[in-house]
Design goal:
This protein has 98 residues and is mainly alpha-helical. It has 5 helices and no strands.
């Protein structure tokens, strides 16, 4: 029987970021954050600049299309849908020991 068509065996990839040890993943992710010199991280140095940039981004949207700022329920619903789409729905609680 060909190994590629045998579905009874569980295969786990040893390739890719997701298959790495969590500590190794953290080390790699940390390097990404360190790649930008501290003095070039303007938003971390200047919260006012970050706030101004966020404000400009919000103002560039047509006021008639800023529905989330006017409708909290709509924003909550959209966030919930996004969470379901990216995480496969609500998480189930792990069985408690005891």
């Amino acid at each position: 029987m060909n190994a590629s068509t045998d579905t009874s065996k569980k295969s786990t990839s040893t390739r890719g970021f997701a298959s790495m040890d969590p500590e190794k993943q953290r080390a790699i992710a940390r390097k990404g954050g360190e790649s930008v010199p501290h003095e070039k991280r303007s938003f971390s140095q200047n919260p006012g600049l970050a706030a101004e940039a966020g404000r400009k981004g919000g103002q560039s949207v047509n006021p008639n299309k800023r529905s989330f700022s006017r409708n909290h329920t709509l924003a909550s619903e959209a966030g919930r849908k996004g969470g379901h789409a990216s995480h496969g729905g609500p998480r189930k609680a792990a069985p408690s020991e005891g």
